[in-house]
Amino acid sequence: MAPLFTDFRKIRKRMKRTLNYGSKQPANLNFPLSELVVEYFDKKCTFDYMEPETSTSISKNGYADPCSLVVALVYLDRLRCQNKNYFESTDPTALYIPALVLASKYLHDADTYDRVSNSEWAESLKINADELNENEWSFVKNLDWNVSVKNEDFEIYLNNMEKWVANSFLKKNDFVTYNELDILSSAVPIYDLIRQLAEIFSSVSLMYCLTLALLSTTIQKVHFQQQPTEIIEGLVVKNQTLEFPKFDFGNLSPSIWNIGKTKNRSTETNLLCEKQMESGFDFDIEKSCRNNIEHHFASTVFIK
Fold first, then answer.
1. How far apart are alpha carbons 185 and 177 in whole angstroms?
2. Do 241 and 218 have their domain in common?
3. Is 292 within 8 Å of 245 (Cβ atoms)?
4. Is 156 part of any domain?
5. Closest among 22, 40, 129 to 79, alpha carbons compared
6. Rounded CA gap, 198 and 124, in Å?
7. CB atoms near residue 220 (< 10 Å)
8. CA nearest neighbour of 292 among 261, 281, 302
9. Partner of 41 for a Cys bridge, out of 92, 145, 148, 266, CB 3.0 to 4.6 A?
10. Claim to verify: residue 237 and residue 250 sit in the same structural domain
């Protein structure tokens, strides 16, 4: 075999793995690829289709391998775009066999062992050789002799073929191996999706942390700025400091100035407490009032 592709051996090894050939060499078309051909013509040909038995017979008795099928599908799509009327009005078998023959000739040189002549194709498929020659000639003319296939086109069609086979395996068996999982995951930008999700999660986490930090700072600032204040009927309690109104001792009767000489100190204290409580203090703070006045008398010398 003398392929036009530089990495042909690697491609054959890849096809053996991705197209479900197992331990067999991809020397012909297996059953999944035969089903692919049937589905291709069922979707592309509006007024006709290919029988599964016909596709299976061509795959089994013909000389086509997966590489030839890839190139043949390129030719068929190219023909459908260039001459749609001819593609839809021609029998799928009369399109498929010439496409395989032409693809085999394109991939293999004339002097190689894998080179197959039209007579050998006709004999293996049990069709008339003249009919095969005529169909091939008609096919290549409607193709405008555009039989060159670029490596990029070959890679695109091979990827699509691998995805179809992997998806078919999943539908039939309801499970996938690592091979099918690797192929099907490439059809979905899973790595880009994971990267975008990671970026979104990081952004949300950062904003959440910044919000918590800002909220904590605001609460602490408000807590230190506010000073708890409670007013209880005239008594102001602020920062645990009691503030009492000023008293005008000049308005007290002269008899009170003589309290230190005529009465004991406890009696004097009771009188002043009663006087202050008449000014509006509540009974609940009587003890505080009494203690404050006792301290005042203890530190003051009363002289008439």
1. 12
2. no
3. no
4. yes
5. 40
6. 57
7. 10
8. 281
9. 92
10. yes
3-class DSSP state of 188:
coil
**Structural domain includes residue 178:** yes
pLDDT digits (tens, 9 = 90+) for 181-237: 777 777 666 556 666 777 787 888 888 888 888 888 877 776 665 555 444 444 444
pTM of the predicted protein model: 0.59
Residue 139 scores a pLDDT above 90:
yes
Residues whose CB is less than 8 angstroms from the CB of residue 70 and which lie 6 or more positions away in sequence, other chains included = 103, 154, 157, 158, 161
The pair of three-digit structure tokens given for residue 250, joined into one six-digit string: 């000049």
Q: Is residue 304 part of a domain?
A: no
Q: Is 72 among the domain residues?
A: yes
Reported as a single tens digit per residue, the pLDDT across 76-114 is 999 999 998 899 888 999 999 999 999 988 887 655 666
| Range(s) of the domain holding residue 167 | 8-188
Same domain, 268 and 175: no
The tokens describing 166, both together, are: 């992997």
DSSP strand pairing (241-243 vs 229-232): unpaired
Question: Is the CB of residue 54 less than 8 Å from the CB of residue 126?
Answer: no
Mark whether 140 and 239 lie in a shared domain.
no
Question: Does 30 lie in the same domain as 147?
Answer: yes
65, 54 contact by CB (below 8 A)? no
Q: Which amino acid is residue 155, in one-letter code?
A: E
Q: Closest Cα partner for 170 from 183, 160, 158, 155?
A: 183
Burial of residue 170 (number of CB atoms within 10 Å: 0-12, 13-18, 19+)? middle
Question: In this structure, which amino acid lies at residue 31?
Answer: F
